[in-house]
Amino acid sequence: MSNTSRVTRRMGLRTGAAAAAVLPLLGAAAVPGRRPGRRLDVMTFNLRYASAFEPNSWSARRPVMRELLHREAPAVIGTQEGLYQQLRDIESDLGRRYDWIGTGRAGGSRDEFAAVFYDTRRLAPVEYDHFWLSDTPDVIGSNTWGGSCVRMVTWVRFRDLRDEEREFYLLNTHLDNASRRARTRSVPLISARMARLDTSLPLLMTGDFNVAAHRNPVYDALLDIGLVDTWDAAVERGPLYGTFHGYKGLVPDGDRIDWILATPGVTVHRASANTFSKHGQFPSDHLPVQVSLTPG
């Protein structure tokens, strides 16, 4: 098992061997023949790392982020790019009902996180871990594929407290923005790590993949390993906008580089790109993508 760290609201930051073990297994897999499950609201959101640069400093964006998250109140949020204190700010703004799991890309509180927030009234983590997108995935901070940054995956096995204690996995990642090789090499590693999990359970994957859906081999490769694009699978969809806008305005029918993928059998009721802003201020340079789904 890799050497990991975990951050929670009440426990603070843990690093090194003290947090290396996966949490004890708490429950059993879903039982065949149960009634259809309850809807689960899932969000993927590249937060844009906190900075003091105006006009889109974190201090300017934080109130808009807070209002958006309070309006939507998803059960689980896969985030990318958050810095440690920024995540603590979001933790405070979300309130006591939410907790989160994550470690910095360089370990501990260093660098950006691929953190997962969750509503503790709805979900309980059963186990979790991290791995790095490199030839040495269990080495914290490793980067062997020429990526512009260290990249990683945070995964959590959740129990749904309001849905007969069904369980599912959530994997959250942020693929490299510059290196096609690094993105391409990431897919078979993610596939191999998925195969280590309990494949009888539904799996969701949130992330900023840094390539456009339908227009890149990485997208095709992720679907080839058995994942489904929830945007395409949704019964109902909101308008499509480019999910990276760079604070320059919305782009109708633009590139969707932030996705939520799922294993087959997940029922997707609605998918949307959230365009919330206030007084011209967006909470991030990305739009959060949201789906309402039933894991199975």
Report on this model:
This protein is of the alpha+beta class. Helices cover about 20% and strands about 25% of the residues. It is built from five helices and 15 strands. The chain has helices at about 60-70, 85-95, 180-195, 215-225, 230-235, and strands at about 5-10, 10-15, 40-45, 75-80, 100, 115-120, 125-130, 150-160, 165-175, 205-210, 230, 235, 260, 265-275, 290-295. The strands form three sheets. A seven-stranded mixed sheet has the order 5-6-4-3-15-14-12. Strands 7-8-9-10-13-11 form a six-stranded mixed sheet. Strand 9, helix 3 (about 180-195) and strand 10 (about 205-210) form a beta-alpha-beta unit. Helix 3 runs parallel beside helix 4 (about 215-225). About 45% of the residues are buried. Mean pLDDT is about 90; it is low at about 1-30. InterPro entries: CCR4/nocturin_mRNA_transcr, Endo/exonu/phosph_ase_sf, Endo/exonuclease/phosphatase, TAT_signal. Keywords: Endonuclease, Hydrolase, Nuclease. One of its GO terms (molecular function) is 3'-5'-RNA exonuclease activity.
Query: How many helices?
Result: 5
Q: Which stretches are low in confidence, meaning pLDDT under 50 for 5 or more residues running?
A: 1-32
The main sheet orders its strands as 5-6-4-3-15-14-12
Largest sheet: 7 strands, mixed
Organism: Streptomyces sp. R21
Pfam family, one: Exo_endo_phos
GO molecular function, one term: 3'-5'-RNA exonuclease activity
Protein name: Endonuclease/exonuclease/phosphatase family protein
